[in-house]
Design a protein that fits this description.
heterodimer; A: 113 residues; mainly beta; five-stranded mixed sheet; globular; B: 114 residues; seven-stranded mixed sheet; four-stranded antiparallel sheet; 53% strand
């Protein structure tokens, strides 16, 4: 099946700092890749996606590029806000693992004013 | 457009009881998946249904079961509850497969087993 390695948190940043969250995956076949975000007490929200190699997903200032050669999908944001404080999950979907998302352990991000 | 609706939001059950959780997907979505989230194990896939058929199943004991109705609404059932079943149960829906659009998640049902 698929597996995901995410950098451990918490990641603590000041407002307007640059954010990078590393994600590498193991998968057979050609999975789609997703980043989800979870705010306290809520379910998961889809942040961005990429369905094939070299695709760049972007949303709300966040970006990630599907790097098949390095099996990575690192999340970046140029200038974070306090409202970006949340837990971020990287998740491949499909490939040989079938119709399911495989989640990493999540990275907690705390942005201080 | 209404999102994914899960009921109830909170539930407290006693060990040994059974519980049924409900999920109404986004209108037009035919695929429904269920995930369990715990602090120790993180997010784990339970099962996925499409047009009333289970297409994929995670590595959970047989006490965990689910079904999908013709209107795409889904339920999951846990029998003979154990303390370790305490978790946030998340339902998610997608138009067909999650490959192109991903899944839209509900707010979850928080189950506490005492």
């Amino acid at each position: 099946g698929n597996s995901v390695t995410q950098m451990e948190g918490p990641v603590t940043l000041s407002e307007e700092a640059f954010l990078t969250i590393n994600c590498t995956y193991t998968a057979t076949g050609y999975p789609s890749l997703f980043w989800y975000v979870q705010y306290p007490g809520e379910g998961l929200q889809l942040l961005l996606k990429a369905t094939k190699a070299d695709d760049k997903g972007s949303n709300k200032g966040f970006e990630a590029t599907y790097r098949k050669e390095t099996t990575s999908f690192h999340l970046e944001k140029g200038s974070v806000q306090v409202s970006d404080s949340a837990v971020y999950f990287c998740a491949p979907y499909g490939g040989a693992a079938g119709n399911k998302l495989t989640f990493g352990g999540g990275t907690r991000v705390l942005v201080k004013p | 457009k209404a999102g994914v609706t899960q009921t109830p939001r909170y539930l407290i059950k006693t060990r040994g009881q059974q519980v049924t959780l409900s999920c109404s997907p986004i209108s037009g979505h035919r695929s429904v998946s269920w995930y369990q989230q715990t602090p120790g194990q993180g997010l784990q896939f339970l099962f996925e249904y499409f047009s009333e058929t289970q297409r994929n199943k995670g590595n959970f004991p047989g006490r965990f079961s689910g079904r999908q109705f013709s209107n795409s609404r889904s339920e999951m059932n846990v029998s003979t509850l154990e303390l370790g079943d305490s978790a946030l149960y998340l339902c998610a829906s997608s138009p067909n497969t999650g490959r192109d659009y991903g899944y839209t998640f509900g707010s979850g049902t928080r189950l506490t087993v005492v």
